[in-house]
Hints:
Helix content: 25-40%
Radius of gyration: 18 Å
CATH topology of the largest domain: Translation Initiation Factor IF3
CATH superfamily of the largest domain: Alba-like domain
CATH class of the largest domain: Alpha Beta
CATH architecture of the largest domain: 2-Layer Sandwich
Distance between the termini: 38 Å
Strand order of the largest sheet: 4-5-7-6
Number of strands: 7
Number of helices: 4
Shape: globular
Structural class: alpha+beta
Order of helices and strands: HEHEEEHEHEE
Amino acid sequence: MNKHEWVDKINEILTHSEHFITSVPAVNSLALVFACDIFRRRKHTVHMDIEASETGTAILKISISKKSNAFEFTIRRNDKAVDYIEQIHPEIQTISIRGCGTVIHVVFQIIEWAIHNGWLIDKSFIGTLTQIHQKNTQRNTTFRAILHRG
Length: 150
């Protein structure tokens, strides 16, 4: 199936069920991953796991919730923590927040507010965003956290 066929199938299942769940060989899952990203951007909770199988094939397992209760954002330069905190309404159950470079301090301000207001940190990641500009390479530290309402 292509991406649009997956989107149609997921929409159809979510009209009659609380979750869309499927398993496919990981090597054949590109269109499905792109379709899942559409639902992630629509604030649905999307879970993806890759597992081994007896046949030696990696299996991608997908679960998409019918509810749109996830909030994902990237902090940019000059953003203020309060502007994001005001967008975290009671129906939001999952927050994914990320920042790169000096804006990581704003990420931590939001996390500090969240953990003192009933949120739990599920995962956090540190990484590097590498940008190559002609002769120089710029490496920016990135930080991402996923929080769930406690």
